[in-house]
Structure formats: C-alpha cells, structure tokens
Write a structure and sequence with these properties.
The structure is a single chain. By secondary structure, the chain is an all-alpha fold. Helix 4 packs antiparallel against helix 5, helix 5 crosses helix 6 and helix 6 runs parallel beside helix 8. Helices cover about 75% and strands about 0% of the residues. The longest helix is centred in the C-terminal third of the chain and has 40 residues. The chain has a domain of about 150 residues. It has 10 helices and no strands. The protein starts with a helix and ends with a helix. The protein is elongated and about 75 Å long.
C-alpha cells in the first residue's frame, strides 16, 4: 500500500501539469475559433469625438473623482465646518449625529450651487449631448461657471499667495487664472470664512458657560461640571432663537 502511495505521489505532479497543458491548448483553440474581440481607443469617424471605450474610461474617472470635486470646488467646505462648530459650541459632541450632519451639508451645498449647476447644464452639458461640442470643449465650458463662483468667494490675498509661489506672471484677467492656483486659494479662503463664522457662533454659548460656572463657584459647587448644567440652557437658547433657521439662512447669505 505504501509503495502505491509513493508511486502515486511521484506521478501526480506530472499528471496535473499535463492536464493544465491540455486545458491551455483547448482554451487557445476555442479563442482562435471564436469571434475576435477588439477595443479601439481614439477619435470617432469624424475625428472629433472619443470612441465608446474611452468615453467609458473618462466617465469612470470623473465618477471616482466626484467626492473630491464636490468637496474642493463647491460650498461644502464652509457648510460642513460651520455645522461642526455649531455642534461643538452647543456641547453635544454626537448630536446631531454624523449621519444627519453630512446629508444636511450635502443638500445645503446642492441648494447653494444650484444656479451654477444650471449654468453648467446650459453651456456645457446640453450642447455636448446634442453633439455640438467635443469632450475637451465641454469640460472647458463646464469649468467656467465654477471658476466664477470660486473667484467670488476667494480672497485676493490667498490667490496672490499661490500665484507668487508658482513664480509666474500675474494673470491679465480672471479668466486667465490657472485652475491649479485658483482651487487651493478658494479652499483656504473657505477655511478662513468658516472659522470666522465658527468663532461668532461660539461667543453666545461661551457667555452661557461663563455665567453658569460663576454661579456654581459662588454657590460652592466647584466639583459639579459646569458643562453639565449649562447644556440645557444652551439648548433652550438655541431653540428659542430658532437657531437652525438663523444658521442656514446665514450660510446661504454668506455665498451671495
């Protein structure tokens, strides 16, 4: 019995290799006899539009970059940071939860950017779908409304920082500002604006915390955390002032 097992062990690898070779020949023969597949990447028949394969690759690339574009080229940065400051100022670290804050920031971003999206649809998407523009021309026109929006929200000081860092000449007009300089300048301008709004949000709640802490110290309750007592008062103040309405209205107005 052991001799048979040793013989089987010696012949088994050779049998597996032979079977693999036979399967490889069979697959190659089937591919040779079957239909031939080819993928052509380049211009279409008129030489102006991309073929279907390259259009799919371009679409997948744009979809993979969609979250980055949504964060870096829209009002999302300011809105989500201000909402985070609002939650910290109230003292509710997990309320509203992130599952509510992020969708709220997304829908607010869509609301603020809706005129820009309509303009992009009119000047780039519709002409491209009607085959009046090539892919390159459509992308160039689509960036135009976004450029105008970012320029309105970008400080000249931040834009000059990146232009000087690149070592190039000052652009003659706003249309000549390169995207690689405009986008980071827009982002740091949004960060500064969001932090300024966050500071103003903290002030009334900071006063409530200071008043509550002073009262507790005067009553000798130094071991009682002031945040625990001030939280209900801050919530009542926020609700009575219709805080969410005021906050959302201020965010929308800050982009005009």
């Amino acid at each position: 019995m052991s001799r048979r097992l040793r013989r089987l062990g010696r012949w088994l690898p050779a049998a597996i290799i032979a079977a693999g070779v036979l399967v490889g020949f069979a697959v190659a023969r089937a591919n040779a006899a079957g239909p031939e597949l080819s993928l052509s990447i380049g211009a279409g028949e008129d030489g102006s539009r991309l073929t279907g394969g390259l259009q799919i690759v371009l679409l997948l690339t744009v979809l993979s970059l969609a979250p980055t574009l949504l964060i870096g080229l829209t009002a999302f940065i300011r809105i989500v940071i201000v909402l985070a400051f609002m939650r910290q100022a109230l003292g509710t670290a997990t309320m509203p939860p992130g599952q509510v804050m992020i969708p709220l920031a997304l829908f607010m971003t869509v609301f603020v950017m809706l005129p820009v999206f309509h303009e992009i649809n009119d000047v780039a998407v519709k002409p491209y779908l009607e085959e009046e523009l090539t892919e390159t021309e459509a992308l160039g026109r689509a960036f135009g409304p976004l450029r105008n929006f970012m320029l309105r929200q970008t400080r000249d000081k931040d834009l000059a920082l990146f232009i000087d860092a690149a070592g190039g000449a000052r652009p003659a007009d706003s249309d000549a500002v390169p995207a690689q300089m405009l986008i980071p300048a827009f982002m740091i301008s949004e960060l500064k604006t969001a932090f300024q709004m966050g500071f103003l949000l903290f002030l009334p709640f900071l006063i409530v915390d200071m008043v509550v802490a002073s009262v507790l110290v005067s009553m000798g309750m130094m071991m009682l955390p002031p945040v625990l007592i001030s939280l209900p008062f801050k919530l009542v103040l926020f609700v009575l002032a219709d805080g969410w309405n005021v906050l959302m209205g201020s965010l929308v107005e800050s982009f005009k």
